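Entry:
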Amino acid sequence: MAYEFFVESKLLSMLHKVGTVVLIVIALIMHGGVFVLVLINGAVGLIVSILRYLILVRKAHLKINWNYFDVSEMKKLFSFSFWIFLISMAQRFRLSFMPSLLGIFSNSTQISIFALGMSIEGMVWVLSTALNGLFLPKVSRLSHQGNTVAITNLMIKVGRIQLFIISLILSGFAIVGKQFLHLWVGDDFQLSYYVLLLLTGSNFISLTQHVASDLVYAENKVRYTASLTFIASGLALLGSILLAPRFGAVGCALSFFAAMMLNIVQLNVFYKKKLHIEVGRFFRECHFQIVPILAVLFVVFFFLSTKVRLDNWGTLIFFAGTYALCYVLVSYVFLFNNEEKNIVRQVCRVRKGEKRFF
């Protein structure tokens, strides 16, 4: 990441995921046991790590100094890793523990409903975070220079692109999600529609602010966000305990949504006061410019979805594709700025030696 070998990094990540799945499928066909599956996952990860190291040695000419040791650096690394570990644990715990709470306070049906919504939310998250982490080297350089204005500009630039992607996915599912779930899993899982909207909607803002998250890492202020994450996780679990007995999976999702909204408010106050990011300008040039026009398009297609029979995969895919096409056209004509239009033109031309987008 420091050398900005993004293509290699993404290809290795894809190799890790695809290779693991392919080998696991082969192992299952050959009646492999649990030990074989675990071995495959570990082996693929090890191979990818070795390839990553070889790329660094070959392209960046790095060599490991096995005799180097510095106590102060070790303390800093341990402190940083400790807070990162706590954040990761809190983030995974607050969502992954929800099915267990539903098992205690509700029933297995609600667990299935929540699990379906959570699995689709995970897919949405992967699609929405394709650009995450790519700007950490640049943010680190700007932070070292003390150029907070440039960091805000980069946050707006990246945030707008991520907002277009997230809005398309979230609004598209809000329009055809019920019909999609009906065709896919039947009417018994219709509540997963509301679970997914609440879980995904809770990240609507945070997924557009990953440049600010990179700045937190660059300035080593992770312990502040860790404390806020723990507070949000605790409130989400407490709210789930109170709502799960009566409202089941939707109650847990609602508790998660409320806790995340509070967390987002706290984080933006932190970004403004501690990191000196122009949060107000970010929302004005990102969300406030984009969301109103897209909301009008969403209302029109949501109304049309109630008037059209989407009772088979053909009509559903056609309707969703029509919405996606209109979304892209409206965004390009009315919302894209000149730089974003140039990005689209460069991608369409696919000319060798084009200037980087960022």
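Residues 351-358 have pLDDT under 50 and may be disordered.
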